[in-house]
Amino acid sequence: MEDFSALPRRDRNLIRRAFLGPLPHGRRLYGLSDADADEFARTSARGLRAVAARYPDDPEVVELVRELREGSEEFARLWDSHDVCPRPTLCKTFHHPLVGAIGVNCDVLDITDRDQQVIIYTAAPGTPSEEALRLLSAVAVTSPGATG
């Protein structure tokens, strides 16, 4: 619900945007429900703590943690809890301004040798959420200026 390729490199960090903003139209985490947004915050803090433990001397990681702790009371509280046990979030509900609630399954693939993750969201076949995603893909293809 935001084109990360249009953002400056520094602003493409989802954890930074989630805790420090700005988010489009003032929405919290792109329309996630409060429960899903809270779980994302906890999972993000845990994941960043694991990265910081793996790369304690990486200046970008150290700076990101400092920036988040200083700029977000929520992140500072989560960071200070020292929780490192990740719990997978299997389902999320996004609230899109055109189609409403979209329930999706969330699968996270870790690419450990590159320290990256690929997050795949899918809707169950035959559900209103699947239909909403189909509608959004059609809107994206037919919108002026869309690339596909």
TrEMBL record:
The keyword Ribonucleoprotein does not apply. One of its GO terms (molecular function) is DNA binding. Pfam families: MLTR_LBD. Keywords: DNA-binding. Residues 2-136 form the MmyB-like transcription regulator ligand binding domain. The keyword DNA-binding applies. This is Putative DNA-binding protein, HTH regulator. It comes from Streptomyces sparsogenes DSM 40356.
